[in-house]
Every structure is written in C-alpha cells, then in structure tokens.
C-alpha cells in the first residue's frame, strides 16, 4: 500500500468517513448492468440456495431452491437463471458494428487488416463481492459440462436445454474477471475499494455493508460506527441486521431460520407424496406451497439488502467522472465478449477443465500486459494515482526552466532538444533512462541527459517532433510549461507469439495428440444429490 | 528438516578438485554423448557455472554442433560472449540483440570474431549464437538448432521456455536453484499444480514432463570459504549439500591498522577471524532506510578500506590488498541501496558496489556487507522472507560477510510463523524462508558485536 | 478455556459458529470415507502414497476405545506398536488419540485417521469437506490442513521414538476431500515437511510459554464468569498483537480489534500499513507527522509522510479544479478529452 493510500485511510479514521482513493472512475459502468446477488448452501460446492437477479433495481427476479440438495430443484433454478441472463447477453451479442483487426494470413503468414464484427456493446455483470465472482466461476464450471437430453439422450439426469450454455458464458465472465482492468464482471466491493479509502483494513472492506457505511454514512452518523453496526448488530433473534453479501450465509441464519424452514418444506413434500386422494393432495399442496413461500421470503430477506446496497454503490460510482482510458479498456472487453460469442456460434466445445500449456502461457502474458497497461492508464487519467507514482520515484512533475535546441549526429540530423525541468519529486533517474510524457494522448519519449543541481534535470526529447529539421509546433515543451514525465511506458508492446497448442514442445509435454480431441466428460453424479 | 538432510562426507576424505572434475566430466559426457534430449545441472553459489557453460559451448562447437545459448539478461549474454572469446578468440560467435538503443556491451565491438545483429538470419552458420530468452522468443526458424544451452534456467519462467523450446532439439539447462525465483506481476494461482504452470521455473516444468532426464550437481563452491559453505549449504540447500573448495586456513583476511575498539572495527576483526560478523543495533522499528543502520553499513565499509585490509587465498599466496572493487554492499530494496550509496559518498567512498539482491545475483566479492532484509521491520512479508533473497546476500563473498541488523529479528520471525497457503500438486520448494532465516540468524548470533560507534 | 464464550463475556461476541448444513455434510462425508472398514480410505492411501505395497484388501481396524484422553492415548500407542509389528498388513486407526509434549505438559490431539502400511510406516490422514475441484482446492484451507497434519506427524514421531526399532512416520500425508461437485472421496498427497519443520521450531521456542505465564500478574484467570472489566484486564495482560487476519482465525479478534482501534494502532488497518511508518504506531502520531506538527524531519519515515501528504493535497486540488473547469465548460469537454487527460494526470 502506498503511503498516499495509507494517509487516506488514516484520514478516514480521523474523520470517520472514507476518503477519495481516486478522483475519476477507473472502470466502465454499463447503462444497464445485470446485477446478480447469489446465495449458496454452506458445506456444499455449487449448491445455490437462491438469488436476486435483474437489470431493474426496483424489480429484481427472486430465484429460490427450497431444498438445495434436490437436483431437480437445482436444475429448475439454473434454468430460470438462464432465462434471465441469456436473453440479456444475447441482446448485446446480436448488435454488432464493423471493426478492423490485424490477423495473420494463414497462406502468406503476413499481418493483414481484416473487417470483422465487433459487438457494439457488451453485457456487464455486477456481483456484490469477490466471493460472488468466485461463485460465478463455480456456477460456470458446474454447468458447462452438463449434458442436455438433446445432446445425450442416455444422460441419467439431463440438464435443462440452456443450462450448459449459461455455464459457458459464466465461465467466460469468470475468466475475464481475472484480467486486470476488465469490466465484464465486477465485484461491488472491489469497485468501491478502488475509489475510496476507508478507515478499516482491506480485509474488512470485503463486507459490502461496512464498506458503504464508511463511504456514505447516514446523515449525522459516523462511518466507523455505522460500519461496526453493519458488521455485528443483531436483532432479538440473533440475526444480523445487515446480512452478509453472500454467497455464504450467516450460520445463525442457517441454524435458526433456514434449517427449520427447509425441514417443514421436506415434511410437506413427503406428506404430499403420501396423499391418498385428490382432496388430501390439494390440502397438502397448499401446505407445501406455503412452506416454499416461507423459504422464498427468507431468501429474499437476506438478499434484498445486498441488492439495494449494490445499486447504491452504482449510484455513488456514477457520480465520479469516467477516467479517460476506461472506455478504451471496455473496448477490449467488447472484443473479449465478441470472441466468446463467435466461439459459441462456430460450435466449439465448452472451455476445458484445465488450460493447456500454450493457453495458460498466453493468458498469463495477456494479464501481465493488461496489468502494466492499467497501471499506466490509471496514473495518466488520475492525478491522485500519479501522485503515488511520483512518490515512488516512478514519475515526476515540474516546470520547464530551459529549452536548448540540439540535433542528433549523422547524415540527416534530427532535432533532439534539451529540456531542463525543475521538480520537487525524486525520480529514480539513472544514465540514459527513458521517460515519457503524454502529448495529445500519445507518448513522447525523452532520455535522461544529466542533473544540474538537486531537483533540476536535463532531458533530451527524442521523438514525436515530425520529420523535418525543425520540430513541429507544440511538439517541444516551452519554458514555463508544466510537464509530467513517467519512467514507465504508456503503451504496451505485444509479446512474442507462442507456438500453436498442436506444436507444444517436448519441454512442456509435447503435442496434445488424440486425447485432446475427445470431448470432456460430464461430472460424476452421486445419489446423495437427490433426497 | 535438517535431521533428514544428507550430511556431507567427513573432512579429509574429500578432494574438491577431483570431485568437481568428476562432476564436470559426467555433465559433458551426458551433454555430448547422452541419449536424452536434456541435461539439468544444479550449481550452488560460486561452483563454476559460467566456466561449465563456456566449456560445454566450446566442446559442442568443436564437435560441429550448431549451438544457441539462452541467457536471461543482456548482461549475462555479454558476459558469456566475452568469456567465450577469451577462451577461444578464433571461434565465430553471434550476438543476437534487440533493436533498442545500446543493446549490448560496447566491449563486444573489439572482438573481431563476434558478429552482432538484431536479425537471426544475419548470424546463420556461426558456431555459437547467444541471446536473451526474450529476444529468442521472437526468432523463427525452419530448422531447429542441434543444441542449446539454457543458462540461469531456475530464474527463467516456464512460459519463457515454452516460447523458445521449439528452436532447439536438445539442451543443457544450468542454474542455481537457491537463488531468487522468477515471478509474475499478476496472480497465477489458477495454474498452480499444473506441470506446465507458466509462472513456475523452466526447470520445474521441464522435469515434470521429462522426469528421466539426467540431473547433475556441481559439488564444490570455489567462492564460498570453508566458514560459509556449511551454513549456506545447510540453510539453503538442505537436500543437495555442497562443500567449499578450500579449507579453513586456506584464506586469510588481515588488517594493517589495528582495531580502535569501536563496534565496526570489532565486527571486522570477528569477520576476519571467523568469516562472519553480525553488527547488531538496538531493537527499534524503523523505516526501510533506517538512517542509523545505513550509517553503520557505511562506517563498516569505510573502516574496511581505512584499515588496509589484505586477503590471502589459494589464488595469491601474497596478500592482495582489499580494494573497493572487491567489496560489495547488499540490500533488499533499491531505496536502501540508494541511501547506503549516499552515506558512503558522505564518507568519501564512491567505488564500492551497492546493489539489491536481485542485481547481485551471480556476482562475487572478497567481502560483503549486508543490510539484513528484516532489520528494523515491524512486519515480515513474503518478500522479505524469500529464501533466495537471503541466500544471494549470504553467498557473494570469498572471505567474509558482515551483516548489519537491528536486534529483535528472532522475535519478529516468531510473530510471523510461516502460514503459507498450499497448492495441491505443486512440488514443495525447500527450504522455507522462515526456517532458513532462523538458521542463519542462529549462526550469526555466535558472531555478534553490539553497535558502538 | 473457551475463547468464544470469553469473547461474549467481554462484550464482543464473534461472528463464529458453524452452519448445521456444513456440519452435517462434513459428518456424512467422513462416515462415507470410513465406511466398510475404511475400504475407500485405504484404497486412496495405497493409490496416492504406497503403490508398491499389496493392495489393502483386508485391513485391521483395532478398537481404540478407552477411558479419558490418557487412556485413549495409551490404547493408541499400543495399537500402533502391534500394527507395526505385524508386517504385511494394513491397519486403520480411526480417531486415534495422540499426546504431544508442549512446553512440558501434554496436549491431546485427535487426527481423523492414521494408517499403518504393510512396511510398518505410518501415515496421517486428514478428511476435509471442502471440495477438490479439477484436482485443486482452496490453498488457504489446504495450508491449514497441512499445518494441522504436521502437528499430528510430530506427535506420532514422539510415539515412534519410544519404539525400537522406530517406525518411519511419513512426511507426506493424505488429504481426503469430496471430488468436484459430488460427495465421492478423492485424495491428494500433501508434503508437510515444511509445516513440520516450522511447527517443530515453534514448539521448541514455546518452552517460553512458561515465561509468558511467569510474566503474567499473579492470579490471572480467564473465566467467563468474571466481571467484564476484570476479564478485560486479564486478557490485556497477555501480549497479543491484533491484525485484521485475526478476524477469520480467532474468537477474541473483535475484542482485540476494539482495543486496537481504541488505542489508535495503525495495525488495525492491516499489518502492511506499518511497513513504511518506522517508529510511528498510532493514527494521531502519523497524521501529526504528516501535517508537520510533530516528528523529526530527518527521520525518513516522517519526511516521506510529508511528501506523501503534499502530493496527495496537490492531486486532490488539481482534481477539484479540473472538475470545476469541466463543469463550466462541458461543451468543450468531450472535444478536449485526450489533452485534458495529460493536464489532469500531472498537475
């Protein structure tokens, strides 16, 4: 944590209110985000208990699994979820514009420009917390290998038709969320934590209620007290006033409210099955419906506060002006979204359980590049972020105190003006270190050419001055200009091309061979999934 | 863990020269005549890794096998080129370099048989072509090289090997498993446990897929003195021990000027006599650039020069003066190095190397002065506990190592017991940083001198 | 002493407790793993750790019941000795009891299972109900299981040391978890040498627990029945450094956090916060130093804080100015978005 952030946190402790950690919004926010607030069953992997989902803050769709261990009820839940999520995604997938992309021509091996479809926008998914992102990943993993009756008529428990497809999309969103700076799938706690520093630790910031309490406490109340209440206050029944944002539930809720309600539901179901005539069945069905309604009410009571909190968080974030580069990063998300759409359209199989060596290496390279890009762009977009880089000696801002024209040696001398900058920052400048400034949004490079006195540096500008003997107007800083140079590059170079997976070298296990061509099997199912 | 560690053979029964020669012969045999596609060589600090690489390169070239050499940094590549040219000035060597400004050491321009180019095609047909892994990753060939040598393979990432492995048929992988591991700037947990985890070291992936490859170890450190090899071997190489090439008494450090009784002088005498010295400052939590500790480091260096140090070793029976060039200061962080440089400049010392562990990897000095990574820290992070960092700092010296540290590191370690997460299926890397730190600290405690300016 | 009831008595009840769903699921899973005389468990031990041995078709499952922990520990030692002296057979010890010497007094431990191999070596088995999904599991949970198993390994080694010849206690334990989304058991060998070494060193240093106790005032006693202020005083006398990580590990953490916040300790915001603050440990001291009201400017921590405070103030002022400008010039804002970014980013 940089000292600047530390100071902001301590300032938050002192004032009882969160302090800005950013002055612009560094993530794209969709006009119509799909908010998803899931709950899961303790002790079971991937057994959802319920969720609120939708794009209308006043009318979320409530989905509930009254008995989470019943496979059919779970499938019904997933099927309903698919009915909400997939149409939303598909609406974005269908609206395209034409874009240019550089591809390698398979015949000539040359890089050529081709025209392709790019989705005009992409669907954005927001969950309350980081654990929610993990749960999206888990749901995706649990669904994408399921077989529908159409795919496999012999499957013992076929999945509803659209469930595997939803699994593939959620897997894609979960995977994309690992790319630094991406905004397809965001956790509200991460979003708020990026933009505000609270008077508690980042660990405690994972509690959405407490985090919001620091950022936006009720009139007249301190953030610290409100946060403490959000974390710990319980009603007379021992239930938390601010339920955890999930997907895990509070054990007290499980034990005191949920377990008895599920038990009543189970009993009602058994009774219904044992009904001997229509009249009895009607009565018992009514009892079952009532028991189910009770569980639905319980699930809604634990998800609705979180749902409202997520929308409140969105309101707060929308008050910040968008960072200049956030849109450019969103365009990369759109490419990612379009790419996945195309893979599904072309009939590719679901994402494998494990990446192959080449895919893993490519993903790591992409993420490292995106991390560097994000770090640079956030600093360029936000003086508060740049302040942190300046403190770390990775950038410096100051006033131009002198400009001397100079030229490169050689047959055709080019301008290499020497610019003297006075700064109070302490950049880690060494012999011929390169520095960059943003000139009309493009990076201009200079070389460190010497230090005159403490805080007075001479830089040699080396590019972006045009082709002529004289630099183009405005391309060289003038005396009195305020400038900001960074020691980090503003744009990222592409990495080396890795071999195709079919060409995996011997050091990494060799080509995948026949085994890779076989589609992945569905997961084993156990009898205990069903009651 | 030490209970299980293999103990080195008893003194006397060990002929370092013969052991090292036997190991080298076996490595060269497997490399030139073995049936396997790869050979892996573990080389502890100062065991003659570069000598081995140069020798293997020359023998492969002599056998008429086109060779590519992959190193990790430009400085490493240039160093190998210079060494090759020194051993065989006639050998046609290619230095493949990037298209950045100043892509290689200017000293290469004086070597008539070294051709330099940013394009691999310009270097076709030369006996040996050397470059960094990053540059090789952009090279495309129709016909792979018959042989490759991958240097510092434990510092190379698996994904980096993936990018270049298609360029060669067989390879010799050489490196020091005890030094700093490669790292990724983003999380890579999702691939942990996979044999080809892209963030793992190249050797880990290589051996996971080719467990039958011959693995060798250079058994003798020619750099570390007899006073240091057992500690470094036990603390950092518990399952692959090595020995010092020299015996107690083979090396001596003496001073023309007697001690003035101050802490720095007493720690110098302790280090001269025993090979180790711990200059301990009173316990206190400090920022990284602890002014007192920084000044203590600088004073030790100043006294080292002022007292007319002289080193006697197997290299020179006559005492060689301990000059600034033979001394280095090691720190964990760049700002600490900068603060020490400034403090040294205040004392009129400008030509002593001061650098971080990362940059001191692979270098050698007569005496090192180390600012302990945990000195004065209120907390112990994974970075500061990383085994490789301490190993690098404690294994750069031929004669003596002086550690400057605040008291209280033992208690700090106790407050931060190792509670690392465990990824299923990954090989456990030994030793544990927490454990190694304790081991080194316990040893240094026997050579403690309290700070009294 | 029960830390949860102590916390409640201190007025900071913890959010701990276990959901009965998780509890039931965990029990059902362990029962399933151990069903049929531990057939599945032994199959996994054979497959993951000892493929060279005879498959475990018939295994001994000795009765370990006895009175009291000492009795059960003695019964376990006896069963281990007998099993070790019966070469060629597999033996499963279900919930054995082990005694570990901690700072001079015995601590009793109950591993899920210990398996004696046909070659006489011993393996610790840990059964957990978190899933292994596609071969990997939550690293924090696996790490905790490994540390737990390492303690059992140390305790078993104390038992083994009393036998002649001493049997080998294996340093790779077997972790058994549900596979993927099912409740079918799957296993993974976990190398616990590191955890064993660390725990061993900690136990050796824990001889000082006596020293900690000696340092406590006479009559310190943690009974939840005491009045809250006496309790607080008693707990305060034990040196414990609160950090946010404690919240997920200790029932008393909320109490410690309240005290830590009250004292204005910067570590209540996380341990890394302290890294650059040197000797400054309280919120007020740090802020006063940053404002220039206190602290020695020659102290690098103080100097860095002042620079940080100045840079932060400058950046916030710049942002505020930009916001005002853009509010008055919204019409041109979009047109100058790119050039604006440099100004915003720098000044």
TrEMBL record, chain A:
Compositionally biased spans, kind Low complexity: 513-524
Region (Disordered): 492-531
UniProt-recorded name of the protein: Uncharacterized protein
Organism: Streptomyces griseicoloratus
The organism's taxonomic lineage, starting at the top: Bacteria, Bacillati, Actinomycetota, Actinomycetes, Kitasatosporales
Automatic annotation (TrEMBL), chain B:
Alphabetic keyword roster: ATP-binding, Helicase, Hydrolase, Nucleotide-binding
InterPro entries: Coronavir_polyprotein_1ab (IPR050534), DNA2/NAM7-like_C (IPR041679), P-loop_NTPase (IPR027417)
Molecular-function GO term, any one: hydrolase activity
Residue ranges of domain DNA2/NAM7 helicase-like C-terminal in the record: 293-406
Name assigned to this protein: ATP-binding protein
